[in-house]
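Onboarding guide, step 5: your first structure request.
Type a short instruction followed by the sequence, for example:

Predict the 3D structure of this protein.
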Amino acid sequence: MAYSNLTLKNLLGLTQPGGTWRLLALIFALLNLKSLPFVWHIQVFYGLLRHIFLFKSRAPPPHPPGALFQPLITSTRCSLMEMDYNLHKSNSTYFLDLDVSRMHHLACLMRLGLHRAHFKTAPRSSNDDQEGQFRIMFGGVTCSFKEEIRPFQSYEIWTRVLSWDQKWLYLVCHIVKKGAVKPKGYTLQPWQRGSKSELGSNDLELNGTAQEGIGPHPAILAVSVAKYVFKRGRKTIPPEDCLCVAELLPPKPEAHLGRQPPPMKAGVETPTIDESATENIVVDAVSSFVPDKEVLSPKIQVDFSRWDWDTIEAERLRGMEIAQHMGGLDQALNVWTADKETALGEF
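The system replies with structure tokens like these:
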């Protein structure tokens, strides 16, 4: 027994000077693995490697109809180094987790389109400009915190497409308690078991919006909305074109040919939608969390038994009811006083 203990101490380095401190430092590093240098970069690029570059020799298969608005779920936990002075997850660290989740979602959902863009195998028309590197640029993010996340608490991030216009693709992320809810099934992982019930974990029917007297799903800890733009060199590519290359959209009817979703210019030009949808962006985004039911719209009835162009366009317009408020935040660019006002101080 004494020999075994001595061997264990030698392996752990406890018999060497400073061995105890090295062991404590190792334990601390393992408990805060996600907060160590370059771990974030590894998590982000792992999503690209797993969903795109593993298919280098062949194009990945397209997603089945209806996958466009389905969420992708990632899991993590709050480490000690993510805590603030209130002993819960610091507000700034949410965005690191959201970056990783959105990267996984975009790489997985757009894998066919990104593969074609990277290896230059995308179908091209006679007037298609293929010059320049294809990039997906991050344009902005907003986040609202509903409940605190305690040290070492596990949680999930459900990321899905919210909507798009002529320039921006909008994603919504719901940070929820791990294991509180499950989707009905998993499109890319059919062997995983989904929820058994048609209702949410609180036995209340959810249809993608807050119902009177019910409010958001109790599993939600925070919600975020972000926007991305697609670039080929300096040229902006409409998200609709990118979704078509990724084979996420059905054939466009002749009545819609030549049309693009209307642009959003700092909240001035927005799609024509129901004026009653003027609630705060965060309230609407929280209410769009649908854990174990398909995405339904209370204002635009959608037939999910068929995923044709009109069905997807109806869901896109429903999402724009939320995304339009984020576009309006760009008006804050105009309230900077610059050198026209006296400053309080510089520290």
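Each response can be followed by summary notes, for example: The first helix runs from residue 2 to 12.
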